[in-house]
UniProtKB/TrEMBL annotation:
Modified residues (N6-(pyridoxal phosphate)lysine): 284
Entry binding sites for substrate: 56, 149, 284, 318, 408
Localization of this protein: Cytoplasm
Residues holding pyridoxal 5'-phosphate: 116-117, 255, 319-320
Designated name of the protein: Adenosylmethionine-8-amino-7-oxononanoate aminotransferase
Lineage summary: Bacteria, Pseudomonadati, Pseudomonadota, Betaproteobacteria, Burkholderiales
UniProt keyword Glycoprotein, yes or no: no
Requisite cofactors: pyridoxal 5'-phosphate
Family annotation (SUPFAM superfamilies): PLP-dependent transferases
Assembly behavior: Homodimer.
Residues under site feature: Participates in the substrate recognition with KAPA and in a stacking interaction with the adenine ring of SAM: 19
Keywords: Aminotransferase, Biotin biosynthesis, Cytoplasm, Pyridoxal phosphate, S-adenosyl-L-methionine, Transferase
């Protein structure tokens, strides 16, 4: 029989792991997972780990959730997959209707793919092609925000401003304009988060003025730029962004792949600013963390710009598993849980609990920028020693595993983005263990 170590050896021989310098596994352990239950993952020795980052921000209602499992088992016996060109099916129809209703029917057309980056590619292409169909062929440029992350395919990487991910591929990427970040951590003496946001919006306006008539769209992660280290901004930035996009006839793409599905407090992050984008990208949590599913929701005006007898004016983009029925059914079960359990209301109480259990951090001299947006909580560790700072994330990850926690700080930004099903005891345990790990890593 294979032991845990055999599985690790076999994995390292043949599985090339994502976002990983494989050589690090000479010192950092690879954990073979045997099963999951609720917020916990279990390794092959039966050791458990509290999934405090929702397995890369995808899981909402726990691993092996009985309600999502039941929906998937039922769907398996009906239809596992059928191509979506020329065919349709109940799960994709019902999901599109329900999501449309959640946007108050502002974004009534849903185009499906599998991963987040594919949704971003679709939004970029749709924006570009829509302007072309309208005869605005000069509108070919895109604007993204400093520190943005939109995925790792070549189009999505072009509007990503994280040098670690971009550096090697620079010559392959289209140029995009990068404008100032509204990150509230950039506040100067006496400035509020709203001041920073308005200052950043002025930079955006400058570029829109300079490139008037040339810009197709601005892409943003509303409220929280997660991958750059949970950078949070004031919603006034989104309101100003919407105004500027209208004024300069530029599309607004909201990448809600990480922040959608209730993460920031409202179902869509844009709702907190009372705006709707022209394109909204969803993925990750929409399938409850079960199956690869992404989609782009857009307006009737965009849809109509493609609606024509000429096939070339259509949006000729596809992925084999577009609108997969199993993934859509997992998404429907996920949306049902939101309604049945009044999840957004429950999360407000849980978010307050997070604020309470970590209250002492606000006065901790080793910490700055304690911040929270709904079910995302983060703080930055102050590490003076350069070598210790460089290894902070890896050391924290390893120490967390010893404390039964799955946490991966981004640089020195420690964050929690747990599944919504944590109970009060688990929240208290998570806080206690996080602080224990923090003490250990800072010692
Ligand atoms: C905001 C944002 N956009 C896009 C992506 C890419 O999604 P995927 O990894 O599914 O391609 C991510 C992934 O973390 C993300 O956080």
């Amino acid at each position: 029989m294979n032991t845990k170590n055999d599985w690790v050896t076999r994995s390292l021989q043949h599985v090339w792991h994502p976002c990983t310098q494989m050589q690090h596994h000479e010192t950092v352990p690879l954990i073979p997972v045997s099963h999951g239950c609720g917020a916990w993952l279990y390794d092959m020795d039966g050791k458990r780990y509290l999934d405090a980052i929702s397995s890369w921000w995808v899981n909402l209602f726990g691993h092996a959730n009985p309600r999502i499992n039941a929906a998937l088992k039922d769907q398996l016996d009906q239809l596992e997959h059928a191509m979506l060109a020329g065919f349709t099916h109940t799960p994709v129809i019902e999901l599109s209707e329900k999501l449309t209703a959640l946007t108050s029917h502002q974004l009534g057309h849903c185009f499906y793919a599998s991963d987040g980056a594919s949704a971003v590619e679709i939004a970029l292409k749709m924006s570009f092609h829509s302007w072309r169909n309208l005869g605005k062929t000069d509108k070919q440029e895109f604007i993204c925000i400093q520190g943005s992350y939109h995925g790792e395919t070549v189009g999505a990487l072009a509007v990503t401003d994280v040098s670690l991910f971009r550096e090697a591929y620079g010559p392959m990427l289209q140029k995009a304009h990068v404008v100032a970040s509204p990150d509230a951590r950039l506040a100067q003496e006496g400035e509020t988060a709203a001041d920073v946001a308005l200052r950043a919006a002025a930079d955006l306006e400058r570029v829109l003025q300079q490139r008037e008539g040339k810009v197709a769209a601005v892409i943003i992660e509303p409220l929280v730029q997660c991958a750059t280290g949970m950078a949070m901004h004031d919603p006034v930035y989104l309101r100003r962004l919407r105004e500027l996009c209208d004024q300069y006839h530029v599309h607004l793409i909201a990448d809600e792949i990480a922040v959608g599905c209730g993460r920031t407090g409202t179902f869509f992050a844009c709702e907190s600013a009372q705006i709707w984008p022209d394109f909204l990208c969803l993925s990750k949590g929409i399938s409850g963390g079960y199956l690869p599913l992404s989609l782009v929701m857009t307006t009737d005006a965009i849809y109509q710009s493609f609606y024509d007898a000429d096939v070339r004016r259509g949006f000729l983009h596809s992925h084999s598993y577009t609108g997969n029925p199993l993934a859509c059914r997992a998404a429907l079960a996920t949306l049902a849980i939101f309604t049945e359990d009044d999840v957004l209301v429950q999360n407000r109480r849980k978010a307050q609990m997070f604020a309470d259990v970590f209250a002492s951090l606000r006065d901790d001299p080793r910490v700055r920028h304690v911040r929270q947006q709904g079910m995302i909580f983060a703080f930055d560790a102050i590490v003076a020693d350069a070598e210790k700072a460089a290894t902070f994330s890896r050391r924290f990850f390893s120490a967390a595993l010893q404390q039964e926690l799955l946490m991966r700080p981004i640089g020195r930004s420690v964050y929690l983005m747990p599944p919504y099903i944590l109970n009060d005891d688990e929240i208290a345990l998570l806080a206690q263990k996080t602080m224990k790990v923090f003490e250990q890593v800072m010692a």
